[in-house]
Amino acid sequence: MTAAPAATGTAIGMSGLTVRFTTRRSQTTALDDVSLDIEPGEFVTIVGPSGCGKSTLLKIVAGLVKPTSGDVSLLERPVRGPQKEIGFVFQKAALLEWRGARANILLQAEMRGMDRAQAARRADELIEMTGLTGFEKALPHELSGGMQQRVALCRALLHSPPVLLMDEPFGALDALTREQMNAELHRIWRETGTTVVLVTHSIAEAVFLGTRVVVMSPRPGRIIRTFSVELPAHRDYAQVMSDPRFDRLATDLRGLLGSAAANH
Amino acid sequence: MTENSLDTAGRQAAADQASGARAAAAGPGSVDAADGLDGTASSTVAKQPPGGGRPPRPTLGRRALTFADSLWRPALVLAVFFAAWWFVAAREYVPNYLVPTPGQVWETMTTQWSELARHTLVTLYETVLGFVLAAALGLVTAVAIAYSRTLDKALYPIVLFAQVIPKIAIAPLLVVWFGLGLTPKIILAVLIAFFPVVISGVAGLRSTDPELLDLAATMGAGPWRTFRKIRFPNALPHLMAGLKVAVTLAVVGAVVGEFVGASEGLGYVLLLANGNLDSALLFADLILMSAIGIVLFVLVEIAEALLIPWHASRRAGVSLTTS
Ligand SMILES: Nc1ncnc2c1ncn2[C@@H]1O[C@H](COP(=O)(O)OP(=O)(O)OP(=O)(O)O)[C@@H](O)[C@H]1O
Ligand SMILES: [Mg+2]
């Protein structure tokens, strides 16, 4: 469980994914013919305008939403029903309001029947790493939005999943804490070789973290382009920000997102 | 001291949230302004300082004070009520055989204490047993309804039917079937208390955030673990509200059962007193019935505070910010 999957084949495969939501009032096409292959150890970031189906895409990979048509595979196995080889960070923190921060993190271990002592040690490491020390017992409503999101992140990392799906995990953080968390996540990814898919609204975050950036169009969501990020695998925040390649890519992305929104 | 530590924690959280909102407001298509800062700024930022510890428990004096503060209003209302009653009865605006004075009621209570206590215990026993059975049956039914569409469709009509049928009307039937013993009283208490438990239980179990259920699914947890760790604790606030209603209704069920046919219990005493035009005994009896209801209600409230302290602390948190 701790080890990364063998570096052959695809970690996540999506082909021809289309999703239509039918409600009483209307029919929405959230995703339209999305195909994307993600190799083991890749860090794919997804950017796109609000409502273009990014959250839906992650939920399809996790097996929580069934696509109207198309195929998904996770770690070489077709996705049918909820997947458990993943860590999922939802757009809202989704914490249990009756549990303290640490107990919320340990929910992962309890639900999976993991070894208690080992899980507790790992939880303490993560708490330390995400700067939650001193708030172990605080209930969710006693935590700020950003702290709640950090608890959710710790919970998703507790079992060292081979695939990590993150839906705007740092959206509620202030800019400086966000940088720290980005650097931390980058380190975790480098050290564990986890495959990560991360949805974000921040172009800087997408470029700093990603080995590939996927840009989606407004609804119905399609992939309009993917960029390979030509930056070293081992990145330092300050260096990346002053790298001319970062600037060029960020400008390209901004232009693409802007024109996509304008054409809509 | 307590206020101080709470206050700093609050401000810190507020600051955290405010900057979070700013970051979110930057939105797509623009690099967050602060992202452009060079790395030196971030390296000087300290980690969150510890400060999430619980405030110290309130002192005994303080607790006594809040207790007194919560008590004086109902006490005042009761005092006014007794004064009015005493005034009306002592001046004989209403004849004494209709409304006795508080003194007469007190005398009846003390002189017939052992008899009254015996009957009170009988009614208490029927009520508690009926309530416990209703809570257990109601919870099982609620789980069945919340988990299975088929059982939902099959059970809801029965539950509703059991509720709308006038319980007083079937009481004689129960006596015919089960005799004059405790059984028909307990069955009536169960029938009356059952409904609020089911309704609140179903509402609570259905109120689980779907995202939490998604989360449980990605954790590979089976239905039992999901129930135990997520759905049931999430349903508890609703369920406790239903249990509070149920426990007061259980008293009604037991007494109605005793009205129809019994040789002991407060309902039986009430009929006796009525027949003898013994209004003092009647009033004493009514007071004891109400006392059973109030004591049981308070016990459920205490259980609630012990079972879901997080819910209470949440409510307390809200009042802290508004006061
Ligand atoms: N369960 C659902 N039922 C009906 N429509 C849905 C459902 N879930 C999502 N949608 C619709 O699908 C579209 C895509 O939603 P999704 O949450 O995936 O967007 P998103 O890209 O994550 O947006 P944001 O950036 O604001 O989080 C939206 O138009 C939304 O209204
Ligand atoms: Mg989303």
From TrEMBL, chain A:
GO function terms (MF aspect): ATP binding; ATP hydrolysis activity
Residue ranges occupied by any ABC transporter domain in the UniProt entry: 14-253
Gene3D superfamilies in the record: P-loop containing nucleotide triphosphate hydrolases (3.40.50.300)
Source organism superkingdom: Bacteria
Keywords carried by this UniProt record: ATP-binding, Lipoprotein, Nucleotide-binding, Transport
Pfam families reported for this sequence: ABC_tran
Keyword Nucleotide-binding among record annotations: yes
Protein name: Lipoprotein-releasing system ATP-binding protein LolD
Protein source organism: Micromonospora noduli
The organism's taxonomic lineage, starting at the top: Bacteria, Bacillati, Actinomycetota, Actinomycetes, Micromonosporales
